[in-house]
Description:
Layout (H helix, E strand, L loop, with lengths): L4 H13 L3 H10 L1 H4 L3 H13 L3 H14 L4 H13 L3 H14 L4 H13 L4 H17 L4 H13 L3 H14 L4 H6 L7 H4 L2 H11 L4 H13 L4 H11 L2 H6 L4 H30 L6 H8 L3 H23 L4 H26 L9 H16 L2 H18 L8 H25 L5 H7 L7 H34 L20 H13 L23
Amino acid sequence: MQMELDDLRSRVEYLLAANRESQALELLRDNLSEHQGSPDYWALYSACQLNTQDYAGAMSTAQAALALEPEHPSGLEFLAISLNSLKRRAEALDAIIRLVNLLPEYARGHYWYAMILVGSIQSKDERVLARQAAEHALKLEPENPLFFQGAAIAAEIAGDNRAALNYLHEGLKIAPHDEGLLRAAGSIDNAERITGEKSKVLRGLLSSNPMNESLHEDFAEAFVEKQGIYAQRFWLFLPALAIVPSLAGARGISQSLMGLAVVLLSTGLFALWNVRSFKRAAHSLPAGYLKDIGGRHRLLRPAWYLYGASLVLGILGAGLGCFGIADVLGAVLLLCAVAAAQAAAVLVYREKAGVPHGQRDPEAVRRLWLKLSGSFAEGFWKRLLSMVVLLVYFALCVPGQNRFAAVPLGAIAMGMFVVVGGLTWALFKLGLSNNAFAYGMAISTSARRRGSALLRGNISGLYYIGIHLLLGTIAAGLSLSVMIGGASLFESSKPAEPADQLNEKELNDLRNNLRTHTPVAPSFEVPDFPTIQPVPLDQ
């Protein structure tokens, strides 16, 4: 059925809002013969294809609109968006700059100029330009929530969190339920002060738009982000179990049973704490949604199993030590527990990066490795403080004179080596110009100094990795020296029996014998020496 262009636009916009893109495209195709000579029709077609992520098609239809009207605003806008989505950034910037120069009062042109720059910032100059463009778009249309969203994102990228929060707050005052603003809050630090907890916000958005796939992805990622809290907990708790057998091992059955009770009770409380944290994170999920998240992020379930296995290994290792059965085997089991927890943390870091498995888009892969680098590198001082705590554990284990003192040192080594391995592999995958250290330095420097910024970033990255490698190597060497101290694998940690001692009566008898006994000196004869005749001096 043929429709007037205005009616067609209204119908297509309604279908797109209802996430019925296929019907919208079918309706556009049905009206092709009627409106194929209209640039507005082709711009509308391009907008619909952008909604279905058909970026190549959107580029073609935008070019068709521009072929009919070279200065068509929506045509230039959609051409720039599609080119940027196809990773043709330079061409996208050319198209959007052309639009800004052509129509300086067209607010959407300034907005998309900012967003294209923000999508892949290359220098400090681009951060400044992005913020200026986003704020100019807001100045042109001060009541548009979309431009508050752009200004908030650009301010956050520029490092001005206070301004970003202010833009977010002002935008939500105008449109409290705007999906774009609420989703943008997820990338702004401290935004929960304004919007509330992220997962609750996303659940509210899903309730009003349940067919939005990108909202489902954001909701799943919000849950995955909360799984990162367990890494630090397990890194500090499992080595603490080594203290119990060091203090209670092989000191009698009563102390051994008490030590085992402490191990079981502390591990149970620790497990309960983490289960409650997990349930609190899953509380906002709809029924059955946890299974859907497991399907999207396939490494989460193995990570949970590894965390559980680490607790079982920790109980076994500490239990063997409490009864003095085999301190070496017990220490090895505890070290395996720490290793399992570290492996689980790496799997969670991988899922927190948020890129679907099998993704071949180079830009998506680059962002994956940048996010992974951030997960491994963040919290340097917190990591050092944790290392001090582990050294305190080591000091408490030393008086036990068994192999459990190797566990805190081994935990330090594993924590350092995980950081070294993750950052080194990311450096290899991203290269010298795109790794997190070089990229972070480059976007905070002007374009003219990009080369020196990349060099400084790589040097600082290698230094950061080297510090962790040095600390890890020292800790590993000390841990290994404790483990190979001479005990066999099943050597008991029971102390050696003291030598027999004389009682008081035997000591008195010995003293009396020494007083009355006169030692006899050995006799010997001095042999005769031959006579030495004097020799005359005149001979």
